Amino acid sequence: MTYVPFEWKALESAYYHQVFRRAPVTLVRGEGTRVWDETGREFLDFVAGIAVNTLGHAHPELTSAITAQARTLLHTSNLFYTVPQLEVAMRLVAHSSLDRVFFVNSGAEATETCIKVARKYGKLQRGGAYEIITTARSFHGRTLATTAATGTRAYQEPFDPMPQGFVQVPYNDLDAMEDAITDKTVALMVELVQAEGGVWPADPAYALGLRELCDARGLLLILDEVQTGIGRTGRLFAYEHYLIRPDLMALAKGLGGGLPIGAALSTERCSVLKPGDHGSTFSGNPLVCTAARVTLDHVLAPGFLEQVRMKGAMTVRRLREMGATTGRITDVRGLGLLVGFDLETTELADRIVAYARDHGLLIIKVAANTIRLVPPLNVTPPEIDQALDIIESALRA
Question: Cα–Cα distance between 383 and 278 in angstroms, integer?
């Protein structure tokens, strides 16, 4: 079933670079966990702008704060001090184990900033070491450097030759990581849940081993929490599940509740950037930082993260029950409201996504046969049940 009028699809095809595999839906309005297309058809949104809409659509306090800030001061550049930027920076430092913040506009810019900081640290502290070890199936962004860091060859091949300085090893394999370290190595960069790679959480022993390995070898540990940060896993940051501390951390997606803001955080140890080393015109402007402040207000409210953990466990439990009764789900993984489940085949995964869309639920496929569920963090248990009912019907269809 198709909901996109021909003219919209034709216009997009004529004017926009053809890099997205868009679903045949034109969305025009959202409220909470629900969105509507231009025909008035309603959908439960378990994509949430790819884990961006932390508080759902048109959240009253978020939209009110954004509107008020837009009437007051939108943008100044970083040549001047602004209060919203400082408020959010202080909040992130206070609730993390890191010491300094640099705001950016996207997840790729956040990881790119971490890469630049690590390289300068290597130049100053490790005799010019510059290589960063990442992992297979990882995803770190779409800039040239972050594409080179990404452990998926298909993203790199069209743009060869890749920038040098990145080495990939298997995920959750500490021995492989250690074996790859040389005198050129300055940092290890990992996702504690490989969200784009199929929702693969790190083994606890692996995460702890990475920290111990960095400490023993004098390396920096960079955590890419672009998708896992800001409560998505049921903790403010995923590293809290693993009881480790990064030296550098990349954030984005859920931080602005729908507006584009990212952040690179560092410990004092590797705060090596000086005036002129890095910069950004748009980053951390009053509008996006106001959105981030309101988002953090809600995520850090008493009981909010506990509810995320509860709703994530509820989702995983029911999906596993479906797998047992239908025999069509082969694995379920996740932390908090970042959940993935594997189907028997790629074709079945595609059919489930299409069936769900036709019956009022938006979900997406990642990797070959994994469907990922990332609803707004304030999704209600009845909405989760409704979404899972649709998925169960799809499995039995």
Answer: 44
What is the tens place of the pLDDT at every residue in 337-369?
999 999 999 999 999 999 999 999 999 999 899
Provide the 3-class DSSP secondary structure of residue 147. helix
Residue 234 CA to residue 229 CA, distance in Å, equals 9
Query: Considering its fold, how many domains does the chain have in total?
Result: 1
CA gap 266, 102 in Å, rounded:
9
**What is the rounded distance in angstroms from the CA atom of residue 379 to the CA atom of residue 349?**
23
Q: Which residues contact 150 (CB under 8 A, 6 or more apart)?
A: 134, 138, 139, 140, 141, 156
> Residues 18-25: contacts with CB within 8 Å, 24+ apart?
23/357, 23/362, 25/357, 25/362
Question: In this predicted model, what pLDDT tens digit does every residue of 76-122 receive, in sequence order?
Answer: 999 999 999 999 999 999 999 999 999 999 999 999 999 999 999 99
Other CB atoms within a 10 A radius of the CB of residue 178 amount to 16
291-307 exposure pattern, b = at least 16 Cβ within 10 A, e = fewer: bbbbbbebbeeeebbeb
The helix (run of H) or strand (run of E) holding residue 201 is: strand 200-201
Q: Is position 380 within any domain?
A: no
Q: Are 38 and 364 in contact (CB under 8 A)?
A: no
Residue 173 resides in a domain: yes
Residue 163 within a domain: yes
* Assessment of whether the complete model's pTM goes beyond 0.90: yes
Query: Where in the sequence is the domain holding 262, given as residue range(s)?
Result: 61-299
Task: Give the C-alpha separation, 110 to 140, whole Å.
Answer: 9
Q: Where are the alpha helices (DSSP H) in 95-238?
A: 107-125, 144-149, 153-156, 174-180, 204-217
List the CATH number of the domain containing 200.
3.40.640.10
C-alpha distances out from residue 292 to 2, 60, 104, 255, Å: 35, 14, 12, 5
Residue 285 phi, psi dihedral angles, 5° rounding? -75, 165
On whether residue 236 sits in a domain, the answer given is: yes
Residue with tokens 């002129």, as numbered in its chain: 276
Which positions are catalytic?
139, 224, 253
Residue 35 in contact with residue 29, Cβ under 8 Å? yes
